[in-house]
Amino acid sequence: MKLWEIMGELHTLFNPKIAEEWDNVGLLIGDNTKDVNKVLFCLDVTEKVIEKSIKNNVDLIISHHPVIFSGFKKVTNETLHGRKLLKLIENKIAVYSIHTNADFAINGLNDFIMDKFNLEGEKIIVNEHKFEDYNSIKNKMEHVHGGLARIKILNEKMKLEDLLEKIKDALGISYVRYVGDKNSYVKKIGLVTGGGSSFMYDIADKIDVFLTGDLRYHESLDALEEGRILVDVGHLESEYLFVDMMEQKMRKFFNGEMICHFEDEVFKLG
What we know:
single chain, Udp-n-acetylmuramoylalanyl-d-glutamate--2,6- Diaminopimelate Ligase, Chain: A, domain 1, 2 domains, five-stranded mixed sheet, 31% helix, DUF34/NIF3_sf
């Protein structure tokens, strides 16, 4: 399958226009006319990912976090980032990144993770938006549907302690950090994967508990004093299932080999 054909399908699933303005998504390295027989999915394009891709003759890496994010003036072997980019280019490995457009798309990562918790109730899309957009690769207009946070309104309230256990079981993790009383009861659950703390203020009056990653001390202290409940799942831990989601999505249109790469946790417990 040609890379440009894959890009057309990914554009349909995760329209770049629903990404945040500061984001950098789409084809970041590579020749869109190349044949793609092997794809590797990952959260971050690490050295391990690149070595694994070279060893397995991977043609395309699809990452959640962009391999090129902020501007830089040179690509040399003097920096880790430069060495990684050079190695990708030298080995003709393309990289396509799907970041906040994967989070916000309907049936994207926020939905995928919320559904993993297997909670019974109504799911609400916060700041839902719909529009028509032209897919220049497929040469047709498409309906685009996205939204920011997800809120689950449970059929019956549950104890926070029980919710924490459900989260850990669903994500296969041993612990989460939380702010609040674990004996509190919650019914309205907000979620933004990754470092989504900036969104919690937009929906604070609509939820009983907010789930995300990378919560900072002062914002968590403020929430505690205001009587709000927060759960820090972890950045990697809230997003690593992007890999599983992408394999499911691409299985519908790609017949080549797909490799799932899961990186080790960045932080260790001492």
